[in-house]
Amino acid sequence: MYLIWRSMLAIVAVFAPASAWAVDSYRFLHVTIDTPWFIFIFLFFLVFAPMILSAILHWRQALRGDEKDEEGKDHV
After folding, report:
1. What's the pTM?
2. Maximum CA extent, the chain
3. pLDDT in tens, 25-48
4. C-alpha distances out from residue 40 to 32, 53, 73, Å
5. Residue 32: CA atoms inside 13 Å, Cβ hemisphere, count?
6. Which top-level group of life is the source organism from (predicted)?
7. Has residue 12 got a pLDDT over 80?
C-alpha cells in the first residue's frame, strides 16, 4: 500500500505544472506599490515591540527597587 501511495505521489509531482504556477505568483499575491510599505510596517513593529516591552519592564522594575530602598529593606 505504501508503494502505491509513493508511486502516485511521484507521478503527480512529475506531471504537475509547478513552473506554470510560478508565472502567476505576482498576480496571486496581489503585489502593488504599497506592498513594500506593508512589509516595512510589519517588520518595524515586529522588531521594536520587544524593545519597547523590555524598556517598560526595566522601568517598572527600577521603580519597584526604589520603593524597597525607601522602606529601609536591603534588596538582594
Report:
1. 0.41
2. 78
3. 566 667 788 888 998 999 999 999
4. 14, 20, 47
5. 4
6. Bacteria
7. no
